[in-house]
Specification:
16 helices; 5-stranded parallel beta sheet; Cobalt-precorrin-4 Transmethylase, domain 1
Length: 409
């Protein structure tokens, strides 16, 4: 078969057929009711405010569409998924129920494709895969359905350009995240391509100290050891930080990414002057628009913060974690992985406080205020509306409130 017959990035023309199924599984009439009434509704003594941007983004919609189309297109073939389609436990469980088999990475992020045959179909997730994983699958000759988000592809283009022109890519992201691994791999298309992944401003400052040769900076060996898992093979900070371009995982906090880029540029200017920066520093905004819109919507809510925020989305969802982190700066916030974390029978909530995806859950009772209060809701870009609606329904059930008692404010 030709590449046109085994590689697909635009679905199979079955969107109209699968859309009713997807809407029936992920739609919420309750969420649509609140949206239609200006994102603010009174339920008994609980005032509910919904962020004006929340839930599924275009890239997630597209990935889910393609997964459903793939299952319909190839009903009798074995269909594999590289990692998770998106970071939402409910959606990934639906993939399993559809008979899609998951291939998970090992600790360093490598995938074992030994079970995949030429006659099989493989879904590439919205985060994308490394160039090495893609190459392995191409060699097998199986059908590939690529759901990589367009925003991620734009970052790849930037990083590819940096490496092509001899710039090290400094990527603001989580080195263990599938997207950051896939993004970093783009430099390996070019001989001598280099990357360095920084998690936050604290790590960025370590880089700045080295670039500007400040007193007390990490030694070369200490620097290499600190970033050992977060940089390209053979990375030498004395050589590879002489010229660099900045990019980011698309789901990071936008203001933090901008601040990190600014600090890195200032360090290069401190070391070499304005003329040098002009030729040896590159930066392009690579936060995806959906991530930015959801963060902006939360900041808009926080002009007059609600008494409490509930953020719904996978604990391993980067954009959801950042929404919860933002909300905690303003009000009491509960990040729940799924609506099932809220138990209307016991009145308890299971949630995660820390930004770390691996932090343990906490269980609390009597977590709702006794009197009238304002509840804010938002969700990450990988959270379906039905889980948002179900979370609200469970909260109202704890208070003994029927959704039929709603009134527009």
């Amino acid at each position: 078969m030709t590449i046109e017959q085994i590689y697909f990035r635009k679905g199979f023309g079955l969107k109209d057929e699968v859309r009713p199924v997807i809407e029936s599984e992920y739609h919420s009439s309750l969420v649509e009711k609140i949206r239609a009434q200006g994102y603010k509704v009174q339920f008994g003594d609980v005032t509910v405010r919904l962020a004006e941007e929340f839930g599924f983004c275009y890239g997630v919609d597209r990935a889910i569409d393609y997964a459903y189309e793939t299952r319909q297109k190839f009903p009798d073939r074995t269909v594999y998924l590289v990692g998770e389609i998106i970071h939402n436990p409910h959606v990934n469980q639906r993939m399993r129920e559809m008979g899609i088999r998951f291939i998970y990475p090992d600790g360093p992020g490598r995938f074992d494709f030994s079970s995949v045959r030429e006659t099989d179909v493989v879904l590439l997730p919205a985060f994308g895969v490394t160039i090495e994983a893609f190459g392995e699958l191409r060699k097998i000759g199986c059908v590939l359905v690529d759901t990589t988000c367009g925003s991620v592809l734009l970052v790849w283009k930037r990083v590819d350009g940096y490496a092509k022109n001899g710039f090290t890519s400094i990527i603001h992201g989580k080195y263990s995240h599938e997207e950051s691994r896939a993004t970093a791999s783009q430099v390996r298309k070019h001989p001598g391509g280099k990357y360095l992944i920084v998690r936050d401003m604290e790590e960025a400052e370590l880089v700045c100290d080295h670039v500007a040769d400040r007193p007390g900076r990490l030694s070369r060996d200490a620097f290499v050891e600190h970033f050992r898992k977060k940089c390209s093979e053979g990375f030498d900070p004395d050589r590879d930080l002489a010229r660099f371009g900045v990019a980011n995982q698309t789901t990071m906090l936008a203001n933090e990414s901008m601040a990190i880029g600014g600090r890195l540029e200032a360090a290069l200017r401190e070391a070499h002057g304005d003329d040098y920066v002009e030729d040896n520093y590159r930066s392009f905004g690579t936060i995806c628009s959906a991530t930015q819109e959801r963060q902006d919507a939360v900041l808009k809510m926080m002009v007059a913060p609600p008494d409490m925020m509930v953020v719904i989305g996978g604990y391993n969802s980067s954009n959801t974690n950042h929404l919860a982190h933002m909300c905690r700066n303003y009000t009491e916030t509960f990040h729940v992985q799924d609506s099932s974390c809220i138990d209307p029978d016991s009145g308890t909530i299971r949630h995660k406080r820390a930004l770390d995806a691996n932090a343990p859950e906490e269980v609390e009772g009597d977590w709702l205020p006794a009197g009238p209060f304002e509840l804010g809701l938002t969700a990450g870009a990988s959270t379906p509306n039905n889980k948002i609606g179900d979370a609200l329904l469970r909260i109202l059930q704890i208070r003994g409130i029927s959704v039929d008692d709603a009134s527009v404010i």
